[in-house]
Amino acid sequence: MCHENEQTYPNCPVVHRTLEVGGLTKSQLIQKLQQHAILMNKYGEMLLADGRFMTSDTKYSLKTVELTVGDLGFSDGATTPQIFKRAGELGLEMCPLELGPHLRLKYLDQPEGYSGNPLQRHQAPSGSITIASEILTDDDEFPKGFYLRRMNGVLWLRGYIADHLHVWNSDDHFIFCKR
């Protein structure tokens, strides 16, 4: 990624993906995650179980962009509202919540996250990718979205908790949809 030299999106290297999403029920998605031995934390399970988590009956294609908070021009980090606002100004959109499990099922070769240091509380884990999606509720105890992680060879689809004041680091990775 490219924020060291202060280049910002779209004038920096990013990871582009085209994904097919939809066509599975919630229970079919959960079954596929289990078939691929993908683990979830309690926040990921809460998101999937919530009635506001909707799946599309029909398959559709999404173009996504993976970039860092620094790639959006925040060399000192930024809050979730700042990140989402800047991404919108740059022509990026929020992802549907159902992209999380679909992307996890497609991105099976995610590199290992660095696990040599103890987890830093209240920060995105090393090697994780947060999926920028509409936040379902302002309730600070309810997960805000999904992130993907590989740790000790195990693939995870995890939910995260972060209030509107949480500052993400400049090297934290996010996925947005392209218009």
TrEMBL record:
Keywords: ATP-binding, Helicase, Hydrolase, Nucleotide-binding. One of its GO terms (molecular function) is helicase activity. This is Helicase. It comes from Ornithinibacillus caprae.
